[in-house]
Amino acid sequence: MKGNHLFAADWRAWAARFACLLVLSLNALCAHAQVTPEGPGWLRPDERRSGLSFKSEDLQAQQNDDAINPSFLWVDQGQRMWSESPQGHAPSCQSCHQEAQTSMKGVALNYPKWDTRNKQLINLEGQINACRVNQQGAKPLAYESDELLALTSWVALASRGMRSERRIDPNIAEPFQRGQRFYEKRIGQNNLSCAHCHTQHFSDRLGGEVISQGQPQAYPAYRLEWQKMGSLQRRLRACLSGVKAEILPFGSQALMELELYLHFRGQGLPLESPGVRR
Ligand code: HEC
Ligand code: HEC
């Protein structure tokens, strides 16, 4: 009898394990199939507004006129770098990609994307560095270096005014959902989520500034406070520091996932980079 019981229990345990495996794999399949972007952080397409619309007329004028937009110091540097060969002998970006404003049209709208080689998200900065290393045999450019900001804003300029029409494909479903969860969870000593400020309280004042929807399209952007150009991740780190949360390292997967979520949350708005912000 005892032996029989044991056997029965064993059998049930195995059956349970098998059922579990089945459910887990079905779950994995379903997780891919159904992403529900709507949550406390989400905005309906008709609610989405550019960050620039929350800014003063003076700042809007600076962004809209290339002749006085300070970002163009970096954009022009990027244009020069495009046709130069690093180390004097490596092929220039231009030797492979020809004219950036034609060959790079629409490219910035597809980042961050899934890098099948390294099985992780890659953003535009990362792709440019991948070409530096793999195609030019040069050293990668440091995050937030003038050089990387210059090349990134030069490539992004080719997509200015364009709108992303991407779908949340299966290969980015999970990183998207992690970005979404990060966006909606309370963080830092202030115990606030990104959604608290940028979805529930946009248009309200905080200190000297009007809170915008926290849209990513202006970046890389020139910020008066920085006295220079900065990447989207630098802006995100400023918000993390603002709520006294852990400041994630540049290029970390958590920041990439946040970038990815922001991309879809703001989809439909035209790319603005190179932006100007306070
Ligand atoms: C020797 C040729 C070569 C050089 C030099 C080169 N690239 Fe590339 N680049 C490629 C190839 C091939 C791809 C596509 C495969 C890949 O992603 O690596 C690519 C892809 C890209 C993409 C992504 C395009 C897309 O559709 O997503 C960008 C952006 C880019 N390169 C920027 C640059 C920049 C900026 C430089 C100069 C710093 C540069 N590349 C130098 C060959 C080159
Ligand atoms: C306490 C409120 C607050 C929280 C929480 C907060 N931010 Fe911000 N954020 C701001 C303010 C203020 C600005 C500068 C004014 C503006 O453009 O909204 C800003 C700017 C931004 C911008 C730049 C928008 C633009 O057009 O230049 C982005 C993107 C952004 N935040 C994303 C985030 C993300 C992602 C989180 C969560 C990690 C977050 N913020 C958390 C207050 C907040």
Short account of what is shown:
The chain is mainly alpha-helical and 278 residues long. It has eleven helices and seven strands. It has a three-stranded mixed sheet with strand order 6-5-7. Strands 1-2 form a two-stranded antiparallel ribbon.
Polypeptide structure, described:
With 278 residues, the chain is mainly alpha-helical. It has 2 domains: 32-64 and 167-277, Cytochrome Bc1 Complex, Chain D, domain 2 (Orthogonal Bundle); 75-157, Cytochrome c-like domain (Cytochrome Bc1 Complex, Chain D, domain 2). Helices cover 47% and strands 7% of the residues. The chain has 11 helices and 7 strands. The chain has helices at residues 2-33, 57-64, 72-83, 93-97, 100-103, 124-134, 146-157, 170-184, 194-200, 232-242, 253-265, and strands at 113-115, 120-122, 205-206, 209-210, 221-223, 228-230, 275-277. The strands form 3 sheets. Strands 6-5-7 form a 3-stranded mixed beta sheet. It has a two-stranded antiparallel ribbon with strand order 1-2. A hairpin with a 4-residue loop joins strand 1 and strand 2. The longest helix has 32 residues, at 2-33. The chain is globular. The model has no long low-confidence stretch (mean pLDDT 92). It binds heme C (2 copies). One heme C (HEC) is lined by residues 91, 93, 95-97, 107, 110, 127-128, 130-132, 135-136, 151, 155.
Determine Rg (CA atoms, Å).
23 Å
| CATH class identity of the largest domain | Mainly Alpha
- CA-to-CA gap between the ends? 79 Å
In the CATH hierarchy, the third-tier topology of the largest domain is known as Cytochrome Bc1 Complex, Chain D, domain 2
- Give the total of domains: 2
Give the helix level as a range of percent: 40-55%
Beta-strand portion reads: 5-15%
Q: Quick check: average pLDDT?
A: 92
The number of distinct helices, counting runs of at least 4 residues, comes to: 11
Q: Which small compounds were modeled alongside the protein?
A: heme C
Low-pLDDT ranges? none
User: What CATH architecture of the largest domain would you give?
Assistant: Orthogonal Bundle
Structural class: mainly alpha
Number of strands: 7
What is the subunit arrangement here?
single chain
**How do the strands of the widest beta sheet line up side by side?**
6-5-7
Q: What overall geometry do the principal axes of the alpha carbons give?
A: globular
Largest sheet: 3 strands, mixed
